[in-house]
Amino acid sequence: MRVLVVDDDTDFCSYIWAGLTKCGVVCERAGNAAEALAQLDRTDVPPFDLILLDVRMPDQSGWEVLQELRDRGSSIPVIFLSGLDGVEDKVRGLRLGADDYIAKSCDFLEIYERVAAVVRCRRGVPMLEHGGIKLDLLKRTAWVEGARVDLSPREFDLLWTLISNPGETITRPELLRRVWNSPDDPRTNVVNVHVGRLRRKLSGHGISFIETVVGHGYRMTQPRSSGDGRADSSGNGSAESKPTPAAESEENGEGDGVPGAGWSDTREPERAMSA
């Protein structure tokens, strides 16, 4: 799930961005209407699933931004997240075409669940299946042969990307861009390390799916028996790279997004929300 957070309050924007990122959401920030529209016009990145939009901003109001999007014919889901919490403000936002209206004083967990609910309603197909794998794209949970498999946010996004393109070879640079939203870095083996972890978790249920295409990348195949649970469909599942410092940082919970990045906001959600 990709979300654009638009707010000129940098502290609040950073807080929401950090919280959503911690929940496995790919987030981008914009400090005003112009930045938001520029982000939405980009064609070199995947489209956003939803916009969290403030009302009071220095260049254009959130009302005007939403009106411009709807005038363009854009149906992207929009939730107003504003300090204006009067009934008339909420009614105005909904009548303009917003999918929801949330006061900034709202608890962070409720904000996240309402974001997920809107995306769920818009997508309409929250389950993705391949062979014996099932992914719930909204709850971000995975099952293999009916058994729940615990995946980190990046492992889930990696599996989602591969399953969405069965049989297609996806290069390491492309996986870095799609899953980590990061440019190619030949010094990092974070993709290799995460593929290795994902293979171990899948093959623990007796089948393998991820094939290495030597010199190119990885592709999702039809499941096959993995024998002792250590081999993968390419025959080299036991030969895995050791993590670079960036990958070790992710393994230790210091960042599960762009290699080397972390979730620096340490405030409690309830306390921060009221600040």
Q: What does this protein structure show overall?
A:
The protein is elongated and about 55 Å long. The strands form 3 sheets. Strands 2-1-3-4-5 form a 5-stranded parallel beta sheet, with helices on both faces. A 4-stranded antiparallel beta sheet has the order 6-7-8-9, with helices on one face. A 3-stranded antiparallel beta sheet has the order 10-12-11. It is 38% helix and 20% strand. The chain has 2 domains: 2-124, Rossmann fold, CATH 3.40.50; 127-251, Orthogonal Bundle (Arc Repressor Mutant, subunit A), CATH 1.10.10.10. Helix 6 (153-163) packs across helix 7 (172-180) and helix 6 crosses helix 8 (190-203). The chain is of the alpha/beta class and 275 residues long. The two termini are 27 Å apart.
Please describe the topology of this protein.
Layout: E1 2-6, H1 10-22, E2 26-30, H2 33-41, E3 50-53, H3 62-71, E4 78-82, H4 87-96, E5 100-103, H5 108-123, E6 127-130, E7 133-136, E8 141-144, E9 147-149, H6 153-163, E10 170-171, H7 172-180, H8 190-203, E11 207-213, E12 217-225, H9 245-251, H10 269-273
Parallel strand pairs: 1-2, 1-3, 3-4, 4-5
Antiparallel strand pairs: 6-7, 7-8, 8-9, 10-12, 11-12
Helix pairs in contact: 6-7, 6-8
